[in-house]
Design a protein that fits this description.
The structure is a homodimer of 480-residue chains.
Chain A lengths: L1 H4 L4 E7 L5 E8 L3 H33 L2 H21 L1 H6 L4 H11 L4 H31 L5 H19 L3 H24 L6 H25 L5 H28 L2 H6 L1 H15 L2 H11 L14 H25 L7 H31 L1 E2 L2 H39 L8 H4 L1 H30 L3 E2 L4 H6 L4
Parallel strand pairs in A: 3-4
Antiparallel strand pairs in A: 1-2
Helix pairs in contact in A: 3-5, 3-9, 5-9, 6-7, 6-8, 6-9, 6-13, 7-8, 10-12, 10-13, 10-14, 10-15, 12-14, 13-14, 14-18, 15-16, 15-18, 16-18
């Protein structure tokens, strides 16, 4: 009994925040069960509040990083407030026969972040609704001609067949990419028209009002998204490709600097390397967003520097070429963390060549980024490519000329070996990481040339401006 | 005038099919303008029909490759036919107060390919509707208390604020992954309830009927998708990871065989190599589908071998480890296409080691695939890992022992060089591709061990069965 009283008589309420900090909320002696309950509740509430607070901080940071997200939210709020006016103004409400709900629904469903996505949904919704509506009327008319008894059967069969067919069409890649939402709306509208047609008598009037309200909602969306701080999917895609090129160039620089730096330095700068790592990993995984942006960009009208039939498909090819380079960097990054150290003489012999090649390669990508950013054809890119190719040959020459030096080492080693001394020289194994880095750099240079080709095709198709100051020198420069 | 009659008097109508074939439809002498128009129309129609036909063939093949897609379409058709019965049966129709439309809408919007996706949408729709509905009622009640004049203002402000907040929440990654659809439904319902509440008098009765119909539609969806040929997102994810492991192992085998085969053979077998290429490219780009499947799988109840709290998140880690290996294969594939040929003696010296290492590595991945397929912990995997590690050391030893052979060559070469003869030996450059392949194979082995770790964690978390026959030998095998 007395032992029971000697249990630790204080209770701590610790709250674990998301950042790992532990906050001690209450340190009190254990009292009555009421107090315990109170403390428990109190701890729970405080824990919840802290969680909520960290969530808000996180959310706020997302908006601060990209304020356009805040603006988008305000735009959605504005569009909905506008469309809800239809309910409050009696004349407007009666004008659309009480179908104002459809306008609200359209705004909620159709309003997307980029204009391209909004237009894609609007056009799909309009096309799907019209197509399914007219087909629904047709089927309904046929069903009526067949008499009261067969009518439901015909309607059921038509719903089954058309819904199944439209659902299947969503599995076809081309339909999925361009008309996925349209197919969904088609099924929805067809079902509503053909089935509810069985009940609603004034079908035509209802359809008319519904189309009117949908058009109204859609136009409010389009106007709001175009007039207030517009976000173009095409512009976003263009910037993404540009940013990926910049990341590629930075990662390459970082990687090679890292490899030739001392191990100690490498460990200290680990934080920075990790940042770069994260950056190029975004490039590795950007395929999905590139594809959806290119898909939405097609629906957009001419804007800024982008004409109506801007070659958005070509951006995907540029993106794929960039990713293929990023795969090389991924592998490079793995290889340079190897513990095998190359012999210093060899390393010094090749270091300059490797660093030069990587810096020229990274120069070419930087220039490509500038071409994309300014949308101006560059003539100096050919000089850079030339330099890069010369660096490739120099590296290959350096590799050719190595043996004379290695021979000396190897001979020394084998002489030592013959003398019965244990040697630790393992020439081929030791040069392995260096050889891999050299090989991957050469491979990278080849892949960067593919990016150049794709960007040049893009520049031709999209009719990028010619750089005025360099237009003369361009002719004299052979295309690398 | 006579020249005009000497114009080519035949007209051909060529139709270009999608497979590149050109079909000449009409070769007739040019006649009256009526005939020309007729021919033009005829050509147009035939061209359209051929295009339609190729489209159908393509679509049919998609279904034949994966018949579950056909079945899914039939399921959607069935669910819609079932729900449309509500319109035809007067008692049912009146039971839900004429709100049968909402059941149809729910089925169309909620029915997805996998059960997880359907459940995700159902739960999100239900939660979003309930939350927004009650909030809408609350706001509506407050607005009524404030009087006729202020009512619209309060409603407008609440719509603006809540719609903006809910839209913003969709930008937060955790909300986006789990409650994106819920947020959309929340905005929609809140707007409809709080705004249309201003008009509809019997708000409570409407809400009751609407909830009933939505629940009805949702349950029809869930029952149909679970009873008829169910497609579980979890099972799909499990199979995807398993397939990716198999592809990895096949690609690795293919790559190394390719490298050590003769160039001529390589060109002949190009078609096959390309197939492999396509396959591992799927692995490179599977991140998106893995994430969405893991997300949907969380909503699924226990099914088959998967318990309720199956560690779906761990699958993403396994997937990432597999992809990291696939990046290596991508680079490897680029390097082996190099035109630099390694000296035959060196190639023969290292060939066996490389092939052995790659086959052991591929063995480990195959065993991992079997572990995943059978969901049975394997003890022989540790033997395979041991063999792989031995092969790594053997390859490294072989690289250490190379010099003696290379020295002979190099000495011969430099002796020849001293004699004034032009030699073509470029030892270090020539061994570059071979050194890269060896280096990447070692890197691959390290990355495969990461996959093993992740799969073993998965096996522990998901409590995979122990292999009965090998349970004894497991203890005696050290963990590699």
């Amino acid at each position: 009994m007395t032992n029971g009283k000697e249990l630790p008589s204080t209770l701590e309420w610790r709250v674990h925040a998301a950042d790992g900090a532990v906050e001690i909320l209450l340190v009190q002696e254990s009292g009555t069960s009421f107090w315990r309950l109170f403390r428990w509740m109190h701890g729970l509430v405080v824990a919840f509040l802290i969680k909520l607070w960290t969530f808000f901080i996180k959310a706020w940071n997302i908006g601060v990083t990209d304020p356009r997200k805040f603006i988008h939210c305000l735009k959605v709020g504005t569009a909905l407030s506008l469309v809800s006016l239809f309910y409050y103004m009696t004349t407007l409400y009666e004008g659309v026969g009480g179908n104002a709900m459809w306008a609200v629904m359209t705004v909620v469903v159709v309003f997307e972040y980029s204009i391209g996505a909004t237009l894609y949904k609007c056009v799909n919704r309009a096309t799907g609704t019209l197509l399914a509506g007219s087909l629904g009327f047709g089927v309904h008319w046929i069903a009526i001609q067949c008499g009261q008894n067969i009518q439901p059967i015909i309607l059921e069969i038509s719903v089954f067949l058309l819904a199944a067919a439209a659902t299947f069409s969503r599995f076809i890649p081309t339909v999925k990419a361009r008309f996925d939402y349209g197919a969904l709306v088609f099924i929805l509208t067809f079902c509503l028209v053909s089935i509810s047609g069985y009940r609603v008598d004034q079908l035509f009037r209802m359809a008319h009002h519904r189309l009117l309200t949908v058009a109204l909602g859609a136009s409010i969306c389009i106007i709001t998204s175009m007039l207030v701080c517009p976000i173009w999917a095409g512009q976003e895609l263009h910037s993404l490709i540009n940013r990926n090129l910049e990341i590629l160039s930075e990662s390459l620089d970082e990687c090679i600097t890292d490899f030739f730096a001392n191990k100690d330095v490498r460990n200290v700068s680990n934080g920075y390397s990790n940042n770069i790592n994260q950056a190029y990993k975004c490039v590795l995984n950007s395929k999905g967003s590139e594809e959806s942006m290119a898909n939405f960009a097609r629906w957009e009208p001419a804007h800024g520097d982008f004409k109506f039939r801007h070659p958005w498909k070509q951006y995907l090819k540029v993106g794929a070429a960039i990713r293929s380079c990023a795969y090389c960097i991924e592998t490079l990054n793995g290889c340079i963390n190897s513990d095998i150290r190359a012999p210093e003489t060899l390393k010094n012999h090749l270091k300059d060549m490797c660093v030069r090649l990587s810096s020229y390669s990274s120069n070419v990508t930087k220039e490509l980024a500038i071409i994309m950013k300014t949308m101006t054809k560059s003539s100096s890119i050919h000089i850079s490519i030339g330099q890069m190719n010369i660096a490739v040959h120099e590296l290959q020459d350096a590799l050719k000329n190595v043996p004379n030096q290695v021979v000396v080492q190897i001979l020394q080693a084998s002489n030592d070996g013959m003398k019965g001394e244990t040697t630790n020289t393992r020439p081929l194994l030791e040069i392995l990481p260096l050889a891999t880095v050299a090989s991957l750099l050469v491979e990278m240079a080849a892949r960067i040339e593919v990016i150049v080709e794709e960007v040049e095709q893009l520049a031709d198709q999209a009719e990028f401006r010619l750089a005025c100051s360099n237009s003369k020198s361009k002719e004299s420069q052979p295309i690398a």
